[in-house]
Amino acid sequence: MSKTLIRGAKVLGGEPQDVLIDGGTIAEVGAGLSAEGAEVVEADGKVLLPGLVDLHTHLREPGREDSETVLTGTRAAASGGYTTVFAMANTFPVADTAGVVEQVWRLGKEHGYCDVQPIGAVTVGLDGRKLAELGAMHESAAGVTVFSDDGKCVHDAVIMRRALEYVKAFGGVIAQHAQEPRLTEGAQMNEGIVSAELGLGGWPAVAEESIIARDVLLAEHVGSRVHICHLSTAGSVEIVRWAKSRGIAVTAEVTPHHLLLTDELVRTYNPVYKVNPPLRTERDVMALREALADGTIDIVATDHAPHPHEDKDCEWAAAAMGMVGLETALSVVQETMVDTGLLDWAGVADRMSVKPAQIGQATGHGRPVSAGEPANLTLVDTAYRGLVEPAGFASRSRNTPYEGRELPGRVTHTWLRGKATLVDGKLT
Amino acid sequence: MQRHLISAADLTRDDAVLILDTAEEMARVADRPIKKLPTLRGRTIVNLFFEDSTRTRISFEAAEKRLSADVINFTAKGSSVSKGESLKDTAQTLEAMGVDAVVIRHGASGAPYRLANSGWIDAVVVNAGDGTHQHPTQALLDAFTMRRRLIGPDAGLGQDLDGRRITIVGDVLHSRVARSNVDLLHTLGAEVTLVAPPTLLPVGVEAWPCEVSYDLDSTLTKSDAVMMLRVQRERMNAAFFPTEREYSRRYGLDGDRMARMPEHAVVMHPGPMVRGMEITAEVADSDRCTVVEQVANGVSIRMAVLYLLLGGNEPAVTHPRTEEK
Amino acid sequence: MDTHDAPSDARPVLEGPDIARVLTRIAHEIVERAKGADDVVLLGIPTRGVFLARRIADKLEQITERKVPCGSLDITMYRDDLRMHPPRALARTEIPGDGIDGKLVVLVDDVLFSGRTIRAALDALNDIGRPRAVQLAVLVDRGHRELPIRADYVGKNLPTSLRETVKVQLAEEDGRDTVLLGAKPDAQ
């Protein structure tokens, strides 16, 4: 196989070094490496990170290929610097059987832009009543280890308890979408000053926090681990912090948009800002950033949720919830965490690659950038600043809240096991 | 400068007084043998109603016809936010027919704002009530009614409602009328108190420019106007209050309570009233109750708004809210 | 419409006493032509036409020793140039109690120019009732008619150029009585 020499890259933001890729593996890391027989990429001070891992992506295939497919979604992932994405189970049909998860997994393999690790549904049809065949999905070719009803909450305490217990048998993890359904009936946006003024149904913070509190206690009780999807409130942070201090095996994620955007944007009634969980307040945003910095929140996950134009080009109440995020995630994290001094690039590698790979057991990903490791790498031009232009997205959908916003950072190269999937910002 | 009327909060004090003064002249047209003005001749206005509201629609229709506009009524029954029903497509279809203004009633909060600011159409948009957000012409007709009753039709010209004490009672949570009135009355200098059980007040109400009380009796005695909001019986089933009887006892307006109001104070209701719930028949039928006047004033206010938005080459009403990019 | 801020170079063509005199003459002419003015209703066109109508009504009362009904007729919503400007604030229309049906309505305005205001006034009258006849009294007729309209009673015929502007100032509104002729600001 071919060799690639990345010259002068700041590995995890450190001093510039050369990195030699040979086949699918990092052969050598050091100064002044020989370029003989290798294709040379002049990194010129760009930052080299382990390939990013997204524990929360909606690829929409099967069922909603009008908004995204495994192909377009993994191309978007490669554009954003990702080498693994975990595909959520709320497809049509729902990924609640070995058959569906294997299909998604196989499509990812065929396209080759990014490893696709399917997430299995916790309950049949995501309806919260009957456990799906979690074991069968785990034993399938897809090797599912993460289970989630994301989009819906496993709200029944008994079902949640059983799921947490059951996956202990094969080291799985339940990723909970924390949303108490009765408290969020008719909910349209964060409940607070803005919702009161706009007359949109309020989505109280307590609807998220009460489920998280219950589930960390359940996890403690049954001795299992639980992962909390897209934390969005300051109160949720406090609960997770408390749970971790007690030694409960809880991990948590935050989305890029909850690190940057607030419910003030809803004043435009533009459904591009409609998302589940909803955009919260400035105070919540600051608490989430702080928690990501101090490790209370373990990872950043995109909750990449593509929707066709018509599902957003309408009145707020009729619009679909969700935002695309794979192609802007790193830029938003640089803006909110790195450029603010809260996190260095090693910290970014930890929150966007190492930890998510550990939680999802994505072997070969989230590894150190050192000799002998798989060459899953991302090169980032951190000095770049530019306007977000959805027209250039690889994703099939354009529902980004950042259109026209200036953000820092641009992924120029992505390597999946030594094979370049993105070169100079262009997909291969 | 915006060309639409979306929210009462968008109106400046001078805009609001101009509308009230204009409505005062429009009201005089109703006394003439020919209740019609040629002002909007050749302009086409569509009443786009996604929610049933015969009262509001015929009030707008009467106003439009008195100003000689061509009127198209479009009622998309029961299609509030159901999938496949596109507000954008409907509006664009109507605009293709040469519509100059869209008067829209929609079950989704913000639908008129979207219609006005999304580049879907060029027509002037007038909000005739959206979800639980705003109903600006209702607030204007309420302020108009108060000014006429508390100051006088002629004496009120050029005046706002500075220092008047207005109490709004009932289901504030689900009420676009309450939101619009709080915004407009505050702009006009009035002191507003909301009275409701805590379950029927929105979280975030503390940021509104008004006082909040859970006790009707203590506020009644110092009110110049008491506005009763409709309380739908269905709310009972969602545990907003225990029983109809308990609601009436704590928050309903009956003859005894009305007697404790100052002599000059009026009772208002945006209609339709639920007699026996928020208001007794005795109060509803008394001289102090302005319900019928409010209906008549609604036509005058809507004529004024349509004249000021459509009567010239640009609207005479300014809007501070910046347009969406 | 002429603005009423006097240009700096304006010269008076009618002063206070002249205005009083011509209004007296107009009142006498009305009595004479209306054979006693029994059924006359004066309607001034806002703003200054209303003050002139009241002054003429007072003079008619002195002459006939009877009260003459006097009101105002706002023509804003009947204008033919509404869509060329932002909407204007409305002025008061006040029709005297007995109405105008079968009456001799004398419209009163300050300056007769293109005739479009009077056209609008005739339309407005039409929506209010059916007078026996309609006549027009103006303080100044400056010519340049654009419609087949003429005044029945004219205070002063004032030949003007289109580059000139005529300002009527009345004590009730402007603190003094005068008619000024000056150059249009944009013609200077």
UniProtKB/TrEMBL annotation, chain C:
Enzyme Commission number(s) from the entry: 2.4.2.9
Swiss-Prot/TrEMBL catalytic activity: UMP + diphosphate = 5-phospho-alpha-D-ribose 1-diphosphate + uracil
Motif (PRPP-binding): 105-117
GO molecular function list: glycosyltransferase activity
Annotated Gene3D superfamilies: 3.40.50.2020
EC category: transferase
Keyword tags: Glycosyltransferase, Transcription, Transcription regulation, Transferase
Location of the Phosphoribosyltransferase domain: 14-157
HAMAP family the record matches: PyrR (MF_01219)
NCBIfam families assigned to the protein according to its UniProt record, in alphabetical order: PRK05205.1-3 (NF003547), PRK05205.1-4 (NF003548), PRK05205.1-5 (NF003549)
Function statement: Also displays a weak uracil phosphoribosyltransferase activity which is not physiologically significant.
Family assignment from sequence similarity: Belongs to the purine/pyrimidine phosphoribosyltransferase family. PyrR subfamily.
Descriptive protein name: Bifunctional protein PyrR
Gene that this polypeptide is encoded by: pyrR
